[in-house]
Amino acid sequence: MRKLYMLLISLFVLFLLAACDEGDDASSGGDNASSDGEIVLDLWHFDPGARMEVYQEAVDRFEEKHENVKVNVLQIPNDDYKQRVVVAMSGGNPPDVFASWGGGWLEEFVDSNKIKDLTNEDIDYDRFIDVAVKNSTFDDKVYGLPLGIATYSFYYNKEIFAEHNLEVPETYDEFLNVVDVLKENDVYPLALANQPKWPGAFYLMYFADRLGGEDVFQSAYRRTGGGFDDDAYVQAGEYIQDLVERDAFNPGFNGIPYDSGQGRQLMYTGEAAMMLMTSGFVNNVREEFPEFEEKMGVFGFPVIEEGNGDPSNISAGVSPVWSIYEETDQSELAVELIDELTSVETAQGYVDKSSTPVAVKGVELKDEYVSIFTEWINKANSIQFPYDQTLPPELGELHKNTTFDLFGLEVTPEEAAESMEAEAKKIFGE
């Protein structure tokens, strides 16, 4: 029995030693030297496909300039990414360089002294669009460099519109007429894959902006007199539920994952006629169903004539925003790396391969859709960044959850708005 006991103790000690060895080999922003003297930088991001290729090309150019430096690139699926970064930051073992969406999510790490201040680094800030850099600027200090700007708009099937004598709607009343005509002809007016909750959130943001104007969100977020229970938010919920009750969306929309492509397939096959989505939809089409592109058109969110919003206002997300872990022991190299990841050369590749506008000036716009989206950005009176990326994480998650429940008819618009405002008061203390 004693021998068995000693054997078990020995095995346990060996297990602990092995675990320690594995921990030493794990990605860390604080220990960058390999056994052969090579310097290793760890980089995390969330983008698959063509964008991932663009980042790798930038990394290759960086490595060519630094023969003794290796960059380990890890792509983590979007739905898991935030949690992975939070866990790594909490454990003191994050990557040296990582991508984010800026806004409140990044600001949480800044407030915890986890992110390097880039303000006085040797970076040409004049190459960036001002509004994009503001998304990662806190207390007048820059904590991230932006690359892409994804606009949110309606994509539609031009053949279906022509078949039913429909015109692109400019007002919301015209939009509802399009919805009703499509329903009468057994076409799903709107494709929606809302399981991850963010696709439906685009509707709430646009409705609130078109009804109340851009100041509605800023007043609630900055606590300057407004709140998330403003009439514009209640009305936005009513508009969402009106669409649901009209059967404007495909059946089961709240249970369909976006990344699986089921929602997009409804567009490709002609079962649905419209979809509100990011500019990344163009690249999805080209990779998944290129023959659909000749049928595809795009239009901005219609104006609500009784609302107070500027029709030029758009919703858009800035990503990736590249930031550096404060405690990396290769700070100078990390700055050079994110400088390359947001260079004009990288931005040109991003535009060409992803069909998405960039936050970097000086690129050639060769793509029809990128030109359209860039024109919208340049003409916008205001750009609303996603609530879940701008707000503190707890409030951003509640926004997605309450909006999801609005689509599911599980809460009333008043209940959703009151829930958001109550949480905001807890977080902001007022």
Automatic annotation (TrEMBL):
Residues 1-18 form the signal peptide. It comes from the Bacteria. The keyword Acetylation does not apply. Coiled coil: none annotated. Keywords: Signal. InterPro entries: Bact_solute-bd_prot1, SBP. PROSITE patterns: PROKAR_LIPOPROTEIN. The keyword Signal applies. This is Sugar ABC transporter substrate-binding protein.
